[in-house]
Amino acid sequence: MSDYQQRHPSSLNNLSDDALPPVEQHARQYETVRNAHETELIEDYVELIGDLIRHRGEARAADIANRMAVSQATVSKMIRRLNDQGLVTNKPYRSLFLTEEGEKMAKVSRARHDVVLHFLRALGVADSTARIDAEGMEHHVSDETLSIMQRFTEQQRR
Amino acid sequence: MSDYQQRHPSSLNNLSDDALPPVEQHARQYETVRNAHETELIEDYVELIGDLIRHRGEARAADIANRMAVSQATVSKMIRRLNDQGLVTNKPYRSLFLTEEGEKMAKVSRARHDVVLHFLRALGVADSTARIDAEGMEHHVSDETLSIMQRFTEQQRR
DNA sequence: CAAACAGTTTAGCCTTGGCTAACAATTATC
DNA sequence: GATAATTGTTAGCCAAGGCTAAACTGTTTG
Q1: Torsion of CA A129, B34, B129, A157, to 10 degrees
Q2: Which of A32, A73, A96, B47 is the least buried, fewest Cβ under 10 Å from its Cβ?
């Protein structure tokens, strides 16, 4: 292993010259991102299904496909996976329901999404941009950062 | 298509009851995230290779594997892809170099990473958390948000 | 300088998350 | 109530990004 630790003389105000983090820490960063990616899509589906039920009264595969800009076949396959994981129940050709656990995930996911979205708006980001960024960011924000974002947002609206 | 547009009576302070966005906008959000995912890994590799060269003098596959917590085989396969895309040059069994284009990507990627990282710190997030979150967030932050983050950070340090 | 070790590559496997095309069921319409 | 339109499912394809095991190259060292 040639990647030994090296002391790097750090100036105090180095905006673009941080040292490399220690190998283990660096590795943990990437692992965290990879893990997030695994659950991300699942959470997005569950969150969307929850939203559709709340706002439309039901969640149908066609709506999900439209909103995700994905084929119905893809949605169908995904629903089976959600079912396998005990997150939704569905009878063939009927609309979907969230299980207890699915509800819980939807709720958590939605809360996180909202915190990020409102934070971005409070920061001064335009609504349409904020929505896009929030969708991507929500799965990569730790609880610590999340609560800081929330506090910031509340202070902002005084 | 059953997913018609619906007016939703919005209270002014609804932190957890936003209406669904219009279908096309919603679809665009998810598409943006999917697109980001495609380039994300590539950028991470290129960025890391650039960092290794800057801080270590060279980038070797084994170091990348260690820092990414991934097998050497995976790195090897990835390097071929980077090569195919004209981002790195490499001779078998030798260390890597970035092409002109690779350099450019590394630079942009690194700048973005730094803005997000410093922003999180300025917000009050602990360093180790900030590093993890930045790694995940950097690919999902629009230019608009990025420049707002930068401005915020600068104001903070006065 | 030969052997051992460290680093790299290749082969082959797996899962995920897309797709299209063909078929099946439900719902709407005449 | 028969037919058309919409919706849902299945089969089979593909690329990406992981992995392990085995083979190969380069370097170090006895």
Answers
A1: 20
A2: A73
